[in-house]
Amino acid sequence: MTEFEALAAARLAAHPWPAQALAALERLRAGGHQAYLVGGALRDVLLGRPGAELLDVATDRRPEEVMRLFPRIEPIGIAHGTVLVLLDGTGIECTTFRREGAYADARHPDDVEFTTDLRADLARRDFTVNALAYDPLSGVLVDQHGGLSDLARRRLRAVGEPLARFREDALRPVRAARFVATLEFELEPATRAALGGVVDRARLVAPERVRVELEKLMAARRPSVGLELLREAGLLELWMPELARCQAVPQNRWHAYDVYTHSLETCDHAPPEKAAVRWAALLHDIGKPDTRVERRGDGTFYGHERVGAELAGCLLQRLRFAGALRAEVVHLVREHMFDYRAQWSDAAVRRWVRRVGEEAIADLFDLRIADLLGNGLKTGFPASLEALRRRIGQVLADSRALRVGDLAVDGRDVMNSLGIGPGPAVGEALEALLEEVLEQPGCNTRERLLARLAGLRAARAGTPDGA
Ligand code: ATP
Ligand code: MG
């Protein structure tokens, strides 16, 4: 064992693997069977990165056996031999050792060929840094493809002959882009050269699988690095043609970059933990190629936010994104052009807040800031953005009561003041108070609303059927 391997083994041995997962490995190994930790969790521990929640486990046991061994399982990828084993507070994705089958449709192995040979299983894995296996019970670390030295050099390299491996499964180039961006690795030259050799095969890859990788890619510090690799490979054109065609679309004096580069820069500057803002940042200007009109030598793009919102919706739908995320992104793209002027009346601010929704405001600000940082001119923030933030704060504070729940009195106050029991009349009284407060936000104090209720009681007492 080299010093280097010893260090890696020590690091893995010192890691606090969940006790439940260790017990599961032990159970899998009973009777002379094999079970190893593999995949991203090993890689991330060795890199000192926060690990994934699910551990990947490889075993010689068949899926049916794994299902019999554990009471709580989900056969999530049974066709490929993968069973999700649910443990207290954690879970493992348990996959039976496989060897590479023939990938006729570039989507799934034609026939999954199970094996009891760990080495064959590691050889079918995508990248060397993903092809390690570790047994935390014995401390054995298997590194058959030089993954440890690639980890140390921060280098992503295909296992085996890159082009052949990419053509077997054309998702692998997308995974390459994802890993290069998230791990901030170099792409080994021969692996890089093979990226472009799969466009014909890539059409056959299920969009859901592409989406999963893109979602992970977008959480990188700089997604642009991965997106550029996809463009280089001709895959951006295939999966996000709306974005790819923004290349070389010139802008105007407000921008140093063409629309494509500006989109990538904006994306990099959006907060990584806000997926919707990241996607909106990437797609916010995809309506520009359709709306560009040249005026006095400068590009104008009237209405690009509406065209862009529609295109963004189609793109995300095609890649099978969840409806909720799609709706958020479409909304942000559509509203990203807000243009605040000091002359806006309070009513105008309130109308804008109501249109975009209070919950979207912080995201729209994040998007605008990313947009400004992404213009390449280093112009700083316009004072108007801070001014709008302050105005919104004031207007919201003044008109706090936008819902019945925000009133300074509640149903109990209404029942006490009016001397009535529970019933529809309570809600009606609250609605009436809300109407008044919306007109005059200053009325929303307990004192004034109780006085108003006393007035209501007096009015009711004056009517023949009053209580
Ligand atoms: P993450 O931290 O995102 O889970 P990961 O490397 O564990 O990263 P998974 O998609 O969970 O990625 O896959 C687990 C392992 O299975 C990988 O590390 C790799 O060894 C192997 N693998 C996954 N997808 C492929 C593929 N398309 N081709 C070959 N091997 C793959
Ligand atoms: Mg994983």
Please outline what is shown here.
With 467 residues, the chain is an alpha+beta fold. Helix content is 52%, strand content 10%. The protein has a seven-stranded mixed beta sheet with strand order 3-4-5-2-1-8-9. A two-stranded antiparallel sheet has the order 6-7. It has a two-stranded parallel sheet with strand order 10-11.
Could you explain how this protein is built, in words?
By secondary structure, the chain is an alpha+beta fold. The chain has helices at residues 3-14, 19-29, 40-47, 63-69, 118-123, 147-153, 162-168, 172-183, 189-194, 199-202, 207-217, 223-232, 235-239, 241-244, 259-269, 275-283, 288-291, 304-318, 323-335, 346-356, 358-373, 383-398, 411-418, 424-439, 446-461; strands at residues 35-38, 55-59, 73-77, 82-87, 90-96, 98-99, 113-114, 132-135, 140-143, 155-156, 186-187, 293-295, 298-300. The chain folds into four domains: 3-153, Beta Polymerase, domain 2; 158-239, Orthogonal Bundle (Hydrophobic Seed Protein), CATH 1.10.110.30; 251-398, Hypothetical protein af1432 (Orthogonal Bundle), CATH 1.10.3210; 404-461. Helices cover 52% and strands 10% of the residues. It has a seven-stranded mixed beta sheet with strand order 3-4-5-2-1-8-9. Strands 6-7 form a two-stranded antiparallel ribbon. A two-stranded parallel sheet has the order 10-11. It starts with a helix and ends in a 6-residue tail after the last helix. Bound molecules: adenosine-5'-triphosphate (ATP) and magnesium ion (MG). Residues 39-40, 52, 56, 125-126, 130-131, 169, 171-172, 216 line the site of adenosine-5'-triphosphate. Adenosine-5'-triphosphate binds at residues 39-40, 52, 56, 125-126, 130-131, 169, 171-172, 216.
